């Protein structure tokens, strides 16, 4: 049987339409939550990290951690496994964009309404005022646009090129929208064939290879056809042949792969540098210090050692970033205006005990050291600090983080 994928705009009555399509066809609904849960189970990563991949606002650490790319690899694999093992499925949500466009028996549907119609639905169904509804719609549209662009390279999430059918629910009405989708299921173009099943198998193999590469810290585009895998490198790398050999060695060992080809993509000659994720080196280090020149220089020196870092200049900003984008290791000054370092340490270890906090101060006393260690600090260092000593301390903290995961 054909598969349906539904992508939608917020307040376009997609929930009602999808439910009625499911009732009319007997298809099983697969939500984003189900794909996220399955991907988390397969990868060992948290569901929160998986779901964060759908957000437009990326992690400040992502250039080094590749967290979003790793999440996408596992989400794609989770979807591919379902496509391979089951039929009569309707994928609704962000995950609907994960499938390979060449799989013919997937009916790709977009449900969206004009803004005035979406605002009317928001008021009628949720009681939202126009200003609040607009804010929610713009945020959701931004997330969806960023998601589609990252997967498809298209900056318009409602582009006709992405779908077999775009249904304007606001003008068509729910009943007619349902009828249009059900009618299209009978279209010969979306019927299952041997060729389309082979494309699902290719998609599954490519997704599997993607997770293997992500686990090894690599991020390249993967395609497969008849057990032959093509890897496309889209960022500049100094030792290209060495990277190609490493990638080929990893992928050749994957069960089901007969051959591996590496290519250079369109983005290879841009300024972005290819970075392999090194799990032995911390990639999510938050530096908290009100001495701006010092902390910016320290961040640059850590980046030269391939450690991903972000900088904030006060305790309140540190606590806000921890809530939005949890670092793995924090380097924290004690004497800062507003919320001081000891209070930041206390709150961080209370709410996020897995974050390892290294105190780096030029003014702390022995009593401060005792308090910090009792609160759970990983280490207590004094300024000025030897960069090699700090680097080794960071690596030791990272080892503890990796051991907790």
List keywords for this structure.
3 domains, 405 residues, 16 helices, GMP Synthetase, Chain A, domain 3, 5-stranded parallel sheet, alpha/beta, 16% strand, Rossmann fold
Describe the structure.
This protein is α/β, with parallel strands linked by helices and 405 residues long. The chain folds into 3 domains: 3-190, P-loop containing nucleotide triphosphate hydrolases (Rossmann fold, 3-Layer(aba) Sandwich), CATH 3.40.50; 216-269, GMP Synthetase, Chain A, domain 3 (2-Layer Sandwich), CATH 3.30.300; 285-404, Response regulator (Rossmann fold, 3-Layer(aba) Sandwich). The protein has 16 helices and 13 strands. It has helices at 14-25, 32-43, 47-52, 62-65, 67-85, 115-126, 130-152, 169-172, 174-184, 194-215, 240-252, 292-303, 315-324, 341-351, 366-375, 387-404, and strands at 3-8, 28-31, 89-92, 106-112, 165-168, 221-225, 228-233, 259-264, 285-288, 309-312, 329-332, 356-361, 379-382. The strands form 3 sheets. It has a 5-stranded parallel beta sheet. A hairpin with a 2-residue loop joins strand 6 and strand 7. Helix 13 (315-324) packs parallel to helix 14 and helix 14 runs parallel beside helix 15. The longest helix is centred in the middle third of the chain and has 23 residues, at 130-152. Keywords: Phosphoprotein, Two-component regulatory system. The modification 4-aspartylphosphate is found at residue 333. It comes from Pseudodesulfovibrio nedwellii. Residues 284-398 form the Response regulatory domain. This is Response regulatory domain-containing protein.
């Amino acid at each position: 049987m054909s598969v349906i994928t539904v992508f939608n705009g917020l307040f376009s009555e997609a929930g009602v339409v999808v439910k009625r399509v499911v009732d009319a066809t007997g298809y099983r609904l697969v939500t984003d939550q189900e794909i996220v849960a399955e991907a988390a189970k397969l990868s060992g990563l948290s569901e929160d990290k998986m779901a964060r991949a759908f957000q437009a606002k990326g992690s400040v650490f992502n250039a080094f951690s590749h967290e979003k790319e790793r999440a996408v690899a596992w989400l794609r694999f989770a979807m591919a496994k379902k496509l391979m093992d089951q039929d009569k499925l309707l994928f609704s949500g962000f995950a609907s964009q994960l499938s390979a466009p060449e799989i013919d028996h997937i009916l790709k549907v977009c449900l969206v309404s004009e803004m005035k119609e979406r605002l009317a639905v928001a008021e009628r169904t949720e009681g939202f005022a126009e200003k609040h509804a607009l804010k929610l719609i713009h945020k959701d549209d931004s997330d969806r646009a960023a998601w589609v662009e990252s997967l498809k390279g298209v900056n318009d999430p409602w582009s006709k090129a992405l779908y077999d059918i775009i249904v304007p629910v606001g003008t068509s009405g729910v009943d007619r929208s349902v009828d249009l989708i059900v009618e299209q299921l009978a279209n010969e173009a979306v019927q299952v064939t041997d060729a389309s099943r082979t494309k699902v198998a290719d998609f599954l193999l490519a997704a599997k290879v993607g997770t293997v590469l992500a686990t090894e810290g690599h991020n390249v585009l993967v395609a497969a056809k008849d057990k032959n895998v093509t890897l496309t490198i889209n960022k500049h790398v100094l030792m290209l042949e060495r990277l190609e050999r490493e990638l080929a060695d990893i992928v050749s060992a994957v069960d089901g792969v007969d051959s591996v080809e590496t290519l250079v993509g369109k983005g290879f000659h841009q300024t972005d540098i290819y970075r392999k994720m090194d799990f032995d080196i911390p990639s999510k280090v938050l530096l908290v210090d009100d001495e701006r020149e010092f902390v910016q220089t320290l961040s640059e020196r850590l980046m030269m050692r391939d450690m991903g870092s972000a900088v904030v200049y006060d305790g309140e900003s540190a606590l806000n970033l921890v809530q939005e984008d949890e670092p793995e290791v924090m380097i924290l000054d004690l004497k800062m205006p507003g919320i001081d370092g000891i209070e930041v340490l206390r709150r961080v270890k209370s709410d996020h005990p897995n974050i390892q906090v290294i105190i780096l101060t030029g003014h702390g006393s022995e009593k401060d050291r005792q308090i910090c260690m009792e609160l759970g600090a990983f280490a207590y260092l004094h300024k000025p600090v030897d960069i090699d000593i700090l680097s080794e301390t960071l690596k030791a903290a990272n080892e503890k983080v990796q051991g907790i995961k």
